[in-house]
């Protein structure tokens, strides 16, 4: 029978819909995203314990005192494990999807209950919607709506709609036919019969359907996380991907708490809205024992309102569960608790530089206090001595009047950024527009508008009065007035769709870090010359705080550093500026010591300080660990290394062409021999730094009488007849199945389970914790030998083959290009114990925190930096 090309037809249909109905999908996306954003803002706005109290009060009103207490404790637990924001994201997603589902499901159920033909048509459709794997809906969802909340909501709506339709239809059909006939006999209009008779009597069943809709919607949070939606789904999916038990349990328990709350509340809501349920509730109360009446008592609306006010007052002073601010780590107590008052203007660069110095000063033992002011108040406060310093004076032009008025009472600590500039910017994908002159003939491309900011801003006045007339843009362009936030929102939307857009911008600004933009040149100088950004202080500050003043005087950031700092703070969100700074400092290790060096404690600089070697690495444990180790060491020596991940083939190709300078994970002479033979004319072997790698099977040390591969024979029952393997396509697995097991006669006793390295390690961890025998595929070096006591089974027949060494390989020009670094690498060597402990430190730090893990390892190995990279005094 010929194959039916059903999949191709569906694919063609999806493509046609995407190409011809994009306007509809854009509209749906806008509506759904708007609903989610609005609801998420409402849910995330209150303090966590305050909102937990409100939810508990709702539970008290609906179900009673005990459920209210349990609800409060459950939500307090979510806050205590720092998943409140994610839980509110999830709740918003579930409620949006639930509302949309109910809006469509109930009318469809009513229609089906009143029309047999409609019911017959809808039933197989509902079967299809409910039985089709929900993951499948993500594919067209991503096609139509992209990544994020919207495809997750769409998949959730489709998956959760069937019970809503079915239960509505069932409830109405179950209403006593004699009651309907009686209503008809008295001449009641069918619509009034539906609203006054059928729906009230069917309400318990309909509400049961609503409950199921909510529960099914909540079950889809992991699906939503897979397509980039915020919330607990993202947490759970990340935990699954990384086999992170702790993260998975915390995310799962938060989902369970939400599920139990929504289930109980939607069930109890039926008792409040259904006449039959209210009657049953009254009977239940009448039968309650006198001693338990307090547990069944439910407050009136007025009492509930009083409770909300009281909870608001109490929750405002409570902080027992939650502040996700880690707090500063004092690395050198230079300040000894001295207070420093820092003022700032609420501009991006002012916020960024101020919170950067707040973090640095806290790390140095000071107690800085930061406060936002307008420009006049800021200068007045410094002049009066109430503010010690600020970092955002635009001189000599923008703040000239303030400087002229107060300069006798101020100190200029120097410029840390410059020159600034005002400009019009366009996305880099817009071709043929490099200057303001180029805009004149391109008005149609940009829909005859330049998106501006606040109408009272100096740049807007300059645009209207000088720039647009100077370039003839006032004839073909209109300057859209609005706000900075609106301009950035429009830029983001257009950039996402690759649409041409021209916006008013200025440098420095974090948008240049987030987007690839072209600053349009101003050959006529209509915007004028740029300012510097200076740090100013009150008179006498340098005398009172010589160390801080010295740091500020030497403070410098380039455009890339400043815009990336601003971007990190933007990503952290409002109220979490210092967390954004900490994230940026983690991405720029050594920057804290560079900006605020501790007297007598600065790292020595190498002879080639400032050099920027490109280091490549594979996503292998030993390579990740050593690459980040050398990155840390080189930055301490004043280098500016760049690191990038490659696969094996790309790495060797990149080194041979000079795109990669060096890498530390060359397995020679066996494993990577084919690549070395192919490219060795353009490469150099700097030397081996780790001897005798090996492939092996390992067992826990508490497993006795198993010391070699030969000892495994006859002991299959001890290990349940299996050896826990890794990815089936790896060379070690192929060698094990094809040669090693046969060589030792184990192929008939044992089965090698295919899986993944994380799964193998998870099984090892589980068995080790229970002291159960387990045999796993491993290799040396590996951090597992540092974490667990394991026995490497010897291989007397050499079935796994000859061992490799780990070599540092580089482009042929590397020794001449970086002679000092090359000399360090030639003498570098690591023992198995050192490498395993380094890998373990990186593992413990977690994904994305490799630099933190390396730093912890360096701290535990004093003198290691000088040993690896000695600098002659």
From TrEMBL:
- Keyword set includes Membrane: yes
Q: Which GO terms describe its molecular function?
A: amine transmembrane transporter activity; carnitine transmembrane transporter activity
InterPro entries documented for this protein:
ABC_Gly_betaine_transp_sub-bd, MetI-like, MetI-like_sf
**Ranges for domain ABC transmembrane type-1:** 87-266
TM regions (residue ranges): 49-78, 90-114, 134-159, 201-227, 239-262, 303-322
Q: Which domain of life is it from?
A: Bacteria
**One Gene Ontology term from the biological process aspect of the record:** glycine betaine transport
Q: What is this protein called?
A: Glycine/betaine ABC transporter permease
Q: Please give the organism.
A: Streptomyces antioxidans
